[in-house]
Design brief:
Blueprint (H helix, E strand, L loop, with lengths): L4 E5 L11 E3 L4 E5 L12 E3 L21 E3 L11 H4 L7 E3 L6 E2 L12 E3 L4 E2 L12 E3 L6 E2 L4 H4 L8 E3 L4 E5 L12 E3 L4 E4 L13 E3 L4 E4 L13 E3 L4 E2 L1
Amino acid sequence: MNCMEGSIKEAHLLKFSSLRVLDLSSNSLALEVSSSWIPPFQLETIGLRSCLLGPKFPQWLRSQKSFSAIDISNAGIVDVVPDWFWNLSSRIMYMNLSFNELKGHVPDFSSQLQLSQLDLTSNNFWSPLPRFSANLRVLFLARNSFFGHISNLCGILSMNNSLTYLDLSSNNLSGEIPDCRKYGYYLVTLNLANNNLSRQIPISMGQLIHLKTLQLEYNSLSGEVPLSLKTCTDLSVLDLAKNTLG
């Protein structure tokens, strides 16, 4: 978080064999390395937010097998995410790829039991909504091209889940909002706005008693607003505009 400019080349990192944390985030630095570069280190934390890594997806990441946190958001990457990236590390807890122009199919994350925060906001991902582990705490998939039904959410909202923030807004999701909110006890923010969701708002939405933000605007929801929402006494933002609610 400084105003550093310039480029970092392979020679600068040649002797950093013990490096475990690389955090250059929120600077104007360019990482200029060849596609065949193999770093001399194994990172645990990769923090390169707002650095210039693109336009190609950084191939050197393929050598990193044990990181638990990666942030390559807003890094000027305009490319398909290679399949190998999704399976690099079983220790991953935090992943932020937001604000790039990434494309491709997002895989099943249900086996990534340590993953607690995933942010893919503002990319060009085009696939059905993946499955996720109930250990996930923060899930941001807004402003992509995810399509199909959102019934997979029931897998995240199973008993003893950890989900607190869920943003699926501005995608191509369709069908009805699944009636599976019984265990959404910790959910604070739910944003499903600007999709193609239809039918009624489920009565069980009222069981999300810790909700502070509920955004369902710009869908095709119909019927009446369920009276059960009156139990959500912590609500400070409720937006149901541009539907056909009675």
